[in-house]
Amino acid sequence: MLLKLGQSLSGRLLVYDAQQMSFRTLQIEIEERREPVTELIDYEGFCAAASRTETESEVDSDSDLDSMSTVRTRNPNRAVQQIKPVEVVQRTDSGWSVHVVDVRSEQEHRLTRLEFTNVLIPMQQLQQRLSELPTDCDILLYCRTGVRSHDAARFLANHGLDPAKLYNLKGGIMRWRKEIDPSIPRY
Predict the structure, then answer these.
(1) Fewest CB atoms within 10 Å of the CB: 93, 132, 169, 179?
(2) Is CATH 3.40.250.10 what the domain over 53-179 is classified as, yes or no?
(3) Sign of the dihedral through C-alpha 93, 162, 130, 151
(4) CB within 8 A of 113, min separation 6: which ones?
(5) Domain ranges, ordered by start, for the chain
(6) Which of 91, 148, 140, 98 lies closest to 122, judged by CA?
C-alpha cells in the first residue's frame, strides 16, 4: 500500500484474526469534514514519556512532600504549589474560585478531561496564549501525570504570573481518577 502497488483500503478496515489465521475487510464510513492527517502527533508529549529531571520525578511521585509543598523554579524566588485532588475538591466545595487549565494535547483532551476545566492550552501553545490566562484568580494546571503541568506552572511563574496563584495538580488526571473519579478512562 505504501508503494501504491495494490488496492487501497480507503473506506475499508482490514481485520486479521491471528487465532483463526484469517483476514476480512469491513466497510467504514469516512468523515468528509475531517482534516487530512499531514504529520505525526507529539507522541512523547501525548504519552507523557518525555525524559524526566530529578525535580520532575520528585513532583510526580507520591513522596513525603506536603500536598501544598513548593518546588523551586529556575528563578529561586518563584515556586510552584502542588495540590492533591482531594484538596482541590475540598477547596472548590468551600467556594474556591480557580481557573482550570488542561495543558495536554487536543487528542488527550478529547479522550477525557476534568469536568470543570475552563480551557485547553497545550504546552506547545502556552507562550502564544499567555494573554488568555487570568491574573486576578488562582490557576490550576493539570496534565496526565502532573509532569507537564508542573513544567507549565514553572513556565508561567517565570513569565510574569504570580507563583502564589499557580497550582499544579499533583499526579494529574490519573491521580484524580484513582482518588476522586474512577469513571475517567485510563490511557
Answers:
(1) 93
(2) yes
(3) negative
(4) 102, 120, 173
(5) 53-179
(6) 148
